Amino acid sequence: MLRLALAFLLFALPATAGPIRIKDLVRFDGVRGNDLVGYGLVVGLNGTGDGLRNAPFTEDIMSNLLERLGVNVTGEQYRPKNVAAVFVTATLPPFARAGSQVDVTVSAIGDAKSLLGGTLVMTPMNGADGQIYAVAQGAIIAGGVSAEGEAARVVQGVPTSGTIPEGARVEREVEFELASLRNVRLALRTADFTTAGRIEETINRELGRGVATMLDAGTVALDLDQTRLRSAAHVLQKVENLTVEPEMAARVVVDQRSGTIVMGEDVRISRVAVAQGGLTLRVEEQPLVIQPNPFSKGETIVVPRSSASIEEQTGTGLAEVQGDTTLSRVVSGLNALGVAPNDMIDILKSIHAAGALHAEFIVK
């Protein structure tokens, strides 16, 4: 109950979005990362690699790798347990130059039990166009632990996936000439007409009227020629640090697994009455064993004995939640019901279904 009270106390605090930098509200059109993927081999595992009978592709890639290194394995039978086939993924950041390094994620695709202690062998990484943009290699940092015995096994975390910090070196740059752009679009992370309008006003006030134009709720266009600055980079450097107070839509987000409830400041609830209670069904099995008398010809039988009962919880009765204009009043009304977070989620669902919750209701 103390944790629940603290959670609702946080919701009840007066909250305003406050000025936010434009760089945290938008994405600059064209300034984006590129996804890379590769197929490689991890070696050095302590007997936790792929079973080659169940993952023949591991044997194929290992044979190809050894042959490229000058080792002829044609017709040879080998069944090592210290190798595993993996997918290697990474994101090539914008403006990454040849020779820079990026982090990679390594994930087993066969029946390997763990990648702990493994080393990724040199793996080329391709972009969506099929070109090689980076090469990955290095020791894997796995995020789990696996241990097993003759009759038991315990796994904590995900030992079949790991990362290699700065494990890929960029070999090819993505061609993008920012200096040649004459127009740049700002894409809002959360589309909103009011926020887009405020961004337009702020930029025009700082750089001159006519520089920014709101195209729709999610896009603001910049005319770089109107700024009279030296380059597009100088314009974006000035724009991204301007601050704007965003307008947020009213939302209620609930996570049923953890019982978490998050409400936005603009959430409103109309005046509504709520009653909450529940039924508990209990079924117990107590079988009775009946044995025959000593030296008789009878047999032992088990007679089923079951008991069932239904208990009705007292509940909160019919409580009134006042329709008010502040989040703290809404929270106080809901908190007055004195129910657990999971029950509160059910109450919010019912209020939303009744049309009394004036906010977007999101269930995860």
Automatic annotation (TrEMBL):
InterPro entries reported for this sequence: Flag_FlgI
Record-linked Pfam families: FlgI
Cell location: Bacterial flagellum basal body
Keywords: Bacterial flagellum, Cell projection, Cilium, Flagellum, Periplasm, Signal
Gene Ontology biological-process entries: bacterial-type flagellum-dependent cell motility
GO CC, alphabetical: bacterial-type flagellum basal body, distal rod, P ring; outer membrane-bounded periplasmic space
Molecular function GO labels: structural molecule activity
Main location, first listed in the record: other
Keyword Metal-binding belongs to the record: no
Protein family (similarity comment): Belongs to the FlgI family.
PANTHER family, per the entry: FLAGELLAR P-RING PERIPLASMIC PROTEIN FLGI, FLAGELLAR P-RING PROTEIN
Role according to the record: Assembles around the rod to form the L-ring and probably protects the motor/basal body from shearing forces during rotation.
Quaternary organization: The basal body constitutes a major portion of the flagellar organelle and consists of four rings (L,P,S, and M) mounted on a central rod.
Protein name (record): Flagellar P-ring protein
Organism the protein comes from: Cereibacter ovatus
Organism ancestry: Bacteria, Pseudomonadati, Pseudomonadota, Alphaproteobacteria, Rhodobacterales
